[in-house]
């Protein structure tokens, strides 16, 4: 796979907005050295002071919301209202962590487990050091900050290697931290090549690596990090199943499923991708679901009436088109294909595929765009079995009027990192987020995410 050029190219028009020069090795070393040197000073600051910096960042994000969202839309095509919502969510994350994060990082006395033979023993949560984050383009602010905000609060510093097509967003993230009062070196944006990133993973100053991206990229990063005994957190792809049981509220399920499939133009790791519909309601659900898809508006992401924008790059559109073609060749039927603007943009139609079985590419592969795969299953047990046979395990959802039964399926039967009942799978600052199987390991957000990037140090006083 060829390496992408660091450049902002508007996917709605194909216009090149800005090109960026990759850092020389000397420039990269300067950034790494600065972040490494800053970490000790940053960690020495009182936790309350670090929390205040996060709180100030949240407030600052609300003031730059319009400008930052416009850059995001121009670089990767997210509908503008959704881009503004992403900035709002980032602000909420910072403010929530500033309020609740210090309690998560407080020392834990071991008297809770009756440690005998010590006058005093406790667990101190100390920062790991300098961390490397390799981030994707689909949620350029949210993905970066849901790692960086808790990591910085814990006293770490960060190197941010963002996707080449959202370099403008990456630089804006660094600028936002500086404007909010974070010291220089707390977060350094790197415009780096694949080879330079491999060198960073090997660098002894870097203590941990996190990646949000494809399963293939996750395997590569995990292998490199493993050679150097570096901790990793990997948030990878998904093919989330949404189970429609016979007693589901079909109108509600159809509306939620359509939103879950089309949000961010379908370019979401935790999007609904496989719709496992029990046979007794398959026809009725499909009719209601298609009605929701037909209401989607594919168009200019700056137009407030648009609900589905372009894909982030032309090559991504070509890849999705190939997946649809192979799925149809393997037996899937096109139930719906929307119109797209007559423009040079990377627009892909909203597509619904029926007659999808487990061998079909639409079921086996992650569809990263506005394409829905509808699969008819015999019953609840069959739905669970099909859901779990996927290599992925990021999210899942169950729709049923019997909430207690649906909750039991979500809790005890589905093999995924997050299972929702009668709702859309989504990330939230208050709860952990992450997957199992080929969807990765480790957690972001919530207390579990906070503690990924600390050294749980035992302190024992005899």
Automatic annotation (TrEMBL):
<protein>
    <submittedName>
        <fullName>Aldehyde dehydrogenase</fullName>
    </submittedName>
</protein>
<dbReference type="InterPro" id="IPR016161">
    <property type="entry name" value="Ald_DH/histidinol_DH"/>
</dbReference>
<dbReference type="InterPro" id="IPR044148">
    <property type="entry name" value="ALDH_GabD1-like"/>
</dbReference>
<dbReference type="InterPro" id="IPR047110">
    <property type="entry name" value="GABD/Sad-like"/>
</dbReference>
<keyword id="KW-0560">Oxidoreductase</keyword>
<dbReference type="InterPro" id="IPR015590">
    <property type="entry name" value="Aldehyde_DH_dom"/>
</dbReference>
<dbReference type="GO" id="GO:0004777">
    <property type="term" value="F:succinate-semialdehyde dehydrogenase (NAD+) activity"/>
</dbReference>
<dbReference type="GO" id="GO:0004030">
    <property type="term" value="F:aldehyde dehydrogenase [NAD(P)+] activity"/>
</dbReference>
<dbReference type="InterPro" id="IPR016163">
    <property type="entry name" value="Ald_DH_C"/>
</dbReference>
<feature type="domain" description="Aldehyde dehydrogenase">
    <location>
        <begin position="7"/>
        <end position="459"/>
    </location>
</feature>
<dbReference type="Pfam" id="PF00171">
    <property type="entry name" value="Aldedh"/>
</dbReference>
<keyword id="KW-0521">NADP</keyword>
<dbReference type="InterPro" id="IPR016162">
    <property type="entry name" value="Ald_DH_N"/>
</dbReference>
<dbReference type="InterPro" id="IPR016160">
    <property type="entry name" value="Ald_DH_CS_CYS"/>
</dbReference>
<comment type="similarity">
    <text>Belongs to the aldehyde dehydrogenase family.</text>
</comment>
């Amino acid at each position: 796979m060829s390496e992408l050029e660091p450049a902002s190219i508007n996917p709605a028009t194909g216009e090149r907005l800005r090109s960026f020069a990759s850092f020389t090795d000397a420039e990269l070393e300067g950034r790494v050295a600065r972040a490494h040197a800053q970490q000790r000073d940053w960690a020495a600051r009182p936790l309350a002071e670090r929390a205040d910096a996060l709180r100030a960042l949240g407030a600052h994000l609300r003031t730059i919301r319009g400008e930052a969202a416009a850059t995001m839309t121009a670089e990767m095509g997210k509908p503008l209202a959704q881009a503004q919502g992403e900035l709002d969510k980032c602000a909420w994350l910072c403010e929530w962590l500033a309020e609740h994060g210090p309690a998560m990082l407080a020392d834990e006395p071991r008297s809770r487990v009756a440690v005998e033979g010590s006058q005093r023993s406790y667990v101190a949560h100390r920062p790991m050091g300098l961390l490397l984050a390799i981030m994707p383009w689909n949620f350029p602010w949210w993905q970066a900050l849901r790692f960086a905000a808790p990591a910085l609060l814990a006293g770490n510093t960060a190197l941010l290697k963002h996707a080449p097509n959202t370099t403008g967003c990456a630089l804006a993230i660094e600028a936002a931290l500086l404007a909010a009062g974070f010291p220089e070196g707390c977060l350094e944006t790197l415009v780096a090549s694949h080879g330079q990133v491999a060198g960073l993973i090997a660098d002894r100053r870097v203590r941990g690596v996190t990646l949000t991206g494809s399963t293939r990229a996750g395997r590569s990063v995990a292998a490199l990090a493993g050679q150097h005994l570096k901790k990793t957190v990997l948030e990878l792809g998904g093919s989330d199943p949404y189970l429609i049981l016979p007693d589901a509220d079909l109108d509600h399920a159809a509306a939620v499923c359509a939103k879950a499939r089309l949000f961010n133009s379908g370019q979401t790791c935790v999007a609904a991708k496989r719709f496992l519909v029990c046979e007794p309601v398959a026809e009725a659900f499909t009719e209601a679901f298609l009605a929701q898809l037909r209401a989607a508006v594919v168009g200019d992401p700056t137009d407030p009436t648009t609900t589905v924008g372009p894909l982030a790059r032309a090559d991504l559109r070509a890849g999705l088109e190939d997946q649809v073609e192979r799925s149809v060749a393997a037996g899937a039927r096109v139930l719906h294909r929307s119109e797209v603007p007559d423009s040079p943009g990377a627009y892909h139609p909203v597509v619904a595929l029926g007659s999808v079985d487990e061998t079909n590419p639409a079921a086996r592969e992650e569809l990263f765009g506005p394409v829905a795969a509808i699969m008819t299953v015999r019953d609840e047990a069959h739905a669970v079995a099909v859901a779990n046979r996927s290599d992925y395990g990021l999210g899942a959802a169950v729709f049923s009027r019997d909430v207690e039964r649906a909750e039991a399926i979500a809790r005890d039967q589905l093999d995924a990192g997050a299972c929702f009942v009668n709702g859309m799978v989504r990330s939230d600052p208050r709860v952990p987020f992450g997957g199992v199987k080929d969807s990765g390991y480790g957690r972001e957000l919530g207390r579990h995410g906070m503690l990924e990037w600390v050294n749980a140090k035992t302190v024992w006083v005899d």
